[in-house]
Structures are given as structure tokens and as C-alpha cells.
């Protein structure tokens, strides 16, 4: 691609061709970079950043070009300027095949419509109402942890995030038995999707117990939501939860209410988009607080100052700036996203390059947030790093919730969950890491701790030991 350097009439025009986009070394026929990705996907993607320039080509699917965009300016261009003209790419398409079409999987005008339909469920006044549920679920979880015993923090945070989401969506619409069944089914679906979006399609068709379990759980979620939708429509009752709100939403294309199938597709993908992500960030926050007692002490002092003895409420969240910094710094250092994809539909200009239709574009938030050129001493957890716009780094390089038309619709919901849950947990218990314990990240559906075991200590009675 050639680019005029100057458009002044009297100066000669110099034509400069951009350098060709390099291909990452080590691609094999038929396999592409599958071996490196299976061995250490995070390490592989991080190494691209140190070895290559603003864009590098890798092979995820033989026969398809995937360009990993590494320059923060070009990532912004891809998400914002080019956002409306791009498809969402392979990972999201796969999710659509598994769970049905939803705001997460849609592109173009369909996406705009779906997003508008869902937006009221994430409005500020709604989230205000959800805080009590989020705090209540956190209290119930902490009550269950045995003081003096090891807690599988990751598993506990997945359970808590799923409960917080499921209660806000369904609290008033399902009886206790149906709710428990639905929560268990959602958990199976959530665990199954992560692996399935990465694997070739034929793996899902194998008659394996895991595949049968997944299909059964997904169909059961659909059936439960269908029944709830029929019941609520018949009663005309507004239960005040998210399901009730979706029921009153109109499909802009048909002018009719959303069908049970449409509602369950949205809810299934919300459970996937909003559970593992929040659970991973919560786990990493608790890990960093345990590793940094001075940071934890400041968080506790702020909570004492603002709350005194009372539990955290929605209006308090804006008055906890230090806790917010801790959460932001966790979102920087331990971002949960390892590959977000898009796909060109037509020939597309990306910076100086022209990219053919059908090219997959991808970027990695985890690697971006650890680039030493953007975040000095990137592996240091430092809630006080706020050089630009009160954010932990250059504003174009800190993308915790993405950017552009697909920016996380649940960002406010997620921050509310994170602040509420951490504020509630740290005042009740101190979670202690075993001496010398190293916790490694693993990139599955999200970048999460491979395992994270911590001992529970009672904050109010530090001498308390495990019963029995
Ligand atoms: C800390 C937790 C979370 C993080 C880090 C996170 C991050 C993100 C990011 C980076 C995107 C953009 C993906 C892209 O560019 O394609 C996204 C999209 C999305 N997220 Fe979140 N998310 C979180 C929690 C949630 C929650 C709690 C919900 C819902 C309850 C949610 C629902 C969604 C949806 C529906 C989309 C798709 C939006 C669209 O395409 O219009 N997320 N999220």
C-alpha cells in the first residue's frame, strides 16, 4: 500500500510502502501455531509483543489469516473506528452456535438492536437495586467458609459470581428448587463453553459424556427460562428482576415481545460473559491483597472511614477511591482477556496496511496491560500508578472493558460486584497465602489462577481456629 506523504501542490509526492506484516515463527503445515498455543498460550502471545512490531500474523485455523494487533493506537482503531464494519470473528461465532444469537455474538445492525434492548437492564438505577443482592450473596458465601481451613478461592469466586448474577436475573421469578437447578445447569454450561470455543467443531459432535452433559444442561436452562417466561406472562406480575425486565422488552425488528428462546440465549451468554470474568478478577484481587499487606491495610482503613460499622451500600461505592484503584490495578495486571477477535468483511485499511476480506483480527488485553513501554515495571502491583486521567497508564492502552460498540455492557454491573464483594469479604476475613506459594496464570475461557488456595482467618477474632 502506498501513501502520499504530502498533498501540497508544489512539493514532489513521495510514495512509501509499509513494511510487510511479519509472520510469527514456528507455524507448521496443518497445525499452524496450535502446538505453541496448547503448550502455553499466554506465553506465546506475550512473546509476540517482544519479538514483533505493531501487527504480526499467526495461524490459529489453517487457511485463515489471523493478525494479532499489538500497537495500542491500532487496537483502538480496530475496536472503535473499524468496529461497525467488522464481524466478531471465530470465538464469538462459535459461542453463537453453542448458545444461540445474542448481544455478545451479533454484529452490524442486529447487534445495535440487541444492545439497545438489553441496555435498560444495566442502567444505573437498576444496578443500585442489585447491590443488596450482591452483598447478601457475598455474606452467605463467607458464612460458609471454615475459619482456619484452606479455601479454594477460585472455585469460591466462580460460585459467588454465578450466584450474584443468577440472583439479579431471576431472584423473583423462580421458586427455590427451580433456582437451584438452574444455577447448577448454568454452571455446567459456563464451564463447557470455554473449552468448546477453542476446539475444532467436530469435537462437540463426539458422543462423549462431557458433550452430553453440556447439551443436557443447556437445554435444561432453556426449558426453565421458557417455563418462567410463560408463567410470568400469564400472571402479568413484575418481579423487579432482570428477567421480568427482558419480558417487557420489544424486539425492534418484529415489534413483538422477545420470545422465550431469545431471552434464554441472552441470559446464557450473559452468564458466560459475566461470571468467569468477575470470578477471575475477584480471585486475583484477593490474591494481591494477601501479597500486599500495606495495600490491604489502606483498603481496610478506607472502609472503616467511609462505612464505620455498617455494610456497604450503592452510594458508598463512589466514595471508596482507593479500593477502586486496587480493582483497576488488578484489571491491569491480571486482565482476564487473552484473545478478543474480529473479522474483516471487506478489504479494510488498518493503519498503513490494506487487509483482505475474511482476515481475523485479534488483540490480547493481558499482554497489552503488561507492556513495559506502556506500564513501567509492569509486573509490580501498584494501585498508585495513575499517570494519565486518573487511570493506571496511558488511557489508550488501558482497556479493561474494551472500547467501541462492543465495549462491555456489564462494566458498571461488574465494578459494582467487585467493589461490593471485596468490601464485604475483607472486613469479615483475612485470606492468607501459604508461605512461598506461587500462583500461576492460565488462559482458558479467561486468564485465571491455575489454582488458588488460601487459609481463612477471622478478621474479628484472629485467634479462631478450625472447628472439629
Ligand atoms: C470484571 C469483569 C468483566 C470484564 C473484565 C469484562 C470484559 C469485557 C470486554 C473486554 C468486552 C468486550 C469484548 C469485545 O471487544 O468483543 C466485554 C463484552 C461484554 N460483556 Fe463484559 N466483562 C466483565 C463482566 C461482565 C458482566 C458482569 C456482564 C453481564 C452481566 C458482561 C457482559 C458483557 C456483554 C453482554 C458483552 C458484549 C457487549 C457487546 O458486544 O455489545 N460482562 N466484556
How would you describe this protein?
This protein is of the alpha+beta class. It contains 15 helices and 14 strands. The chain has helices at 34-51, 72-79, 90-99, 108-118, 124-144, 153-170, 176-198, 202-205, 209-235, 242-247, 260-291, 293-307, 321-333, 365-368, 411-428, and strands spanning 3-4, 15-16, 55-58, 66-69, 86-87, 150-152, 340-344, 348-350, 353-355, 360-363, 429-433, 441-443, 447-449, 453-458. A hairpin with a 2-residue loop joins strand 8 (348-350) and strand 9. The longest helix has 32 residues, at 260-291. It starts with a strand and ends in a 10-residue tail after the last strand. The relative contact order is 0.16. Bound molecules: protoporphyrin IX containing FE (HEM). Residues 103-104, 115, 165, 270, 273-274, 277-278, 281, 336-337, 340, 400-402, 406, 408-410, 413-414 line the site of protoporphyrin IX containing FE.
- The overall strand count is 14
Count of alpha and pi helical runs: 15
Enumerate the strands of the largest sheet in spatial order, edge to edge or round the barrel. 3-4-10-7-5
Low-confidence stretches: 1-9
Helical proportion, percent range? 40-55%
CA-based gyration radius: 23 Å
State the CATH class: Mainly Alpha
Share of residues in strands: 5-15%
Cofactors and ligands: protoporphyrin IX containing FE
Count of the domains:
1
* Shape call: globular
Distance between the termini: 73 Å
Please name the CATH topology: Cytochrome p450
Please give the largest β-sheet: 5 strands, mixed
The CATH superfamily appears as Cytochrome P450
What is the residue-mean pLDDT, rounded to a whole number? Answer: 88
Give the helices and strands as they follow along the chain.
EEHEEHEHHHEHHHHHHHHEEEEHHEEEE
**Structural class by SSE content:** alpha+beta
Amino acid at each position: 500500500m502506498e501513501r502520499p506523504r504530502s498533498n501540497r501542490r508544489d512539493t514532489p509526492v513521495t510514495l512509501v510502502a509499509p513494511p510487510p506484516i511479519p509472520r510469527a515463527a514456528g507455524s507448521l503445515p496443518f497445525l499452524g501455531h496450535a502446538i505453541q498455543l496448547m503448550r502455553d498460550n499466554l506465553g506465546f502471545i506475550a512473546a509476540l509483543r517482544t519479538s514483533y512490531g505493531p501487527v504480526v500474523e499467526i495461524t490459529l485455523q489453517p487457511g485463515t489469516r489471523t493478525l494479532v494487533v499489538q500497537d495500542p493506537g491500532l487496537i483502538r482503531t480496530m475496536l472503535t473506528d473499524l468496529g461497525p464494519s467488522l464481524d466478531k470473528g471465530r470465538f464469538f461465532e462459535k459461542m453463537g452456535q453453542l448458545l444461540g444469537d445474542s448481544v455478545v455474538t451479533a454484529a452490524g445492525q442486529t447487534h445495535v438492536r440487541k444492545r439497545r434492548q438489553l441496555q435498560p437492564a444495566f442502567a444505573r438505577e437498576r444496578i443500585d437495586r442489585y447491590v443488596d443482592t450482591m452483598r447478601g450473596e457475598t455474606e452467605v458465601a463467607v458464612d460458609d467458609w471454615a475459619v482456619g481451613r484452606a479455601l479454594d478461592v477460585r472455585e469460591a469466586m466462580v460460585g459467588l459470581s454465578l450466584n450474584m448474577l443468577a440472583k439479579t436475573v431471576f431472584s423473583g421469578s423462580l421458586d427455590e428448587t427451580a433456582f437451584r437447578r438452574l444455577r447448577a445447569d448454568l454452571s455446567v454450561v459456563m464451564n463447557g463453553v470455554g473449552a468448546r470455543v477453542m476446539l475444532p467443531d467436530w469435537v462437540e459432535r463426539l458422543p462423549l459424556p462431557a458433550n452430553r452433559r453440556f447439551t443436557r444442561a443447556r437445554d435444561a436452562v432453556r426449558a426453565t427460562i421458557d417455563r418462567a417466561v410463560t408463567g410470568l406472562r400469564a400472571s402479568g406480575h413484575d418481579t423487579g428482576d432482570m428477567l421480568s425486565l427482558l419480558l417487557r422488552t420489544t424486539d425492534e425488528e418484529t415489534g413483538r415481545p422477545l420470545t422465550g428462546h431469545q431471552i434464554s440465549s441472552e441470559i446464557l451468554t450473559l452468564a458466560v460473559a459475566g461470571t468467569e470474568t468477575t470470578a477471575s478478577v475477584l480471585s486475583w484481587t484477593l490474591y494481591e491483597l494477601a501479597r500486599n499487606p500495606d495495600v490491604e491495610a489502606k483498603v481496610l482503613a478506607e472502609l472503616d472511614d467511609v462505612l464505620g460499622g455498617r455494610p456497604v451500600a450503592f452510594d458508598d461505592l463512589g466514595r471508596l477511591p482507593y479500593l477502586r484503584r486496587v480493582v483497576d490495578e488488578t484489571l491491569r495486571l491480571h486482565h482476564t482477556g487473552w484473545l478478543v477477535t474480529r473479522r474483516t468483511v471487506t478489504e479494510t485499511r488498518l493503519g498503513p496496511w490494506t487487509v483482505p476480506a475474511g482476515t481475523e483480527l485479534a488483540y490480547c488485553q493481558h499482554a497489552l496491560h503488561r507492556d513495559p513501554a506502556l506500564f513501567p515495571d509492569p509486573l509490580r502491583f501498584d494501585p498508585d500508578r495513575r499517570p494519565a486521567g486518573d487511570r493506571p497508564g496511558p488511557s489508550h492502552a488501558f482497556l479493561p472493558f474494551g472500547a467501541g460498540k462492543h465495549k462491555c455492557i456489564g462494566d458498571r454491573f461488574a465494578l459494582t460486584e467487585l467493589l461490593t464483594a471485596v468490601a464485604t469479604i475483607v472486613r469479615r476475613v483475612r485470606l492468607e497465602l501459604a508461605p512461598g506459594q506461587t500462583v500461576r496464570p492460565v488462559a482458558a475461557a479467561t486468564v485465571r489462577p491455575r489454582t488458588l488456595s488460601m487459609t481463612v482467618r477471622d478478621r474479628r477474632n484472629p485467634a479462631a481456629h478450625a472447628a472439629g
